[in-house]
Amino acid sequence: MHNTYSKEEVYNKLTSRFSDMEFLLDEPMKKHTTFRIGGPADIYVEPSISQMVPLLRYLQELQTPYMVIGNGSNLLVSDDGIEGVVISLGKNASDIQIDKEQACIYAEAGAMLSSVANRAAEAGLTGLEFASGIPGSIGGAVYMNAGAYGGEIKDVLINADVFQDSGEVSQIACDALDLSYRHSALMEKSGFVLGAKLQLSPGNVDEIKATIEDIRQKRVDKQPLNFPSAGSTFKRPEGYFAGKLIDDAGLRGYTVGGAQVSEKHCGFVVNKSEATAADVLQLMKDVDAKVYEKFGVHLTPEVRIIGRNIN
Q1: What would the pLDDT profile of 233-253 be if each residue is shown by its tens digit?
Q2: Where exactly are the structural domains of the chain?
Q3: Model pTM?
């Protein structure tokens, strides 16, 4: 906790320094996560990429805690909310540029994977179809090396522009980001993705669109899209599938408060009715304990758990 930190004081400084941005006090995070769960962020803002660097440098100068999020699709936010400033890279930071000659795409961190995949399809570029159904943004996808249907971001990433703690912006090559299953070096070193350049290949527009439609249909058939969730709740344990372990442990439909192990796909925890973060955390704990008791396998959260008093 920063002893000198006063959210009202920081809010006043920010609003006078950056009159072109809208800062919100005590903004409920459940409005900004796909789980529809989470207490208030002290201060919330959605800057453009060009506004991002001066804002981050100023927050560092003020020694104010801050956190950068994408579209909130892989987050569980504490019921007590988040201390400091939450910077959401969303619609104001979602520009997509296509270079058909080089079969490349540059996307700002807030661009949704589905939008980038669809734009690639329109341009007859193949390689990103796997990402068309992942409900996240490019920044979050690079940060956790998002993947689905046999593809991962590391398969197509050339480099990423990263804001580092030093206040510098560096272009970091894919190899140097150390991308592996749901992991990147950014998780240890800190730093935020501002944009990413992807290498695709020329392909047939109709075939690419057919693959995207096929993936969309699989998601609709298999995933509980009718309830708020944060996607896959647990990482895949080596040699197993989390959803199958949870199902085999007899936990399909298991409920704590408003949170439930999805009856449609046991790999998902859903917000069935006004669930709190405490409900979800207790449910995750119970599921892990039961699966460990039955199969001797621990489940690690894939969802990022953030905010005050989260332990």
Answers
A1: 999 999 999 999 999 999 999
A2: 7-91, 94-219, 224-306
A3: 0.91
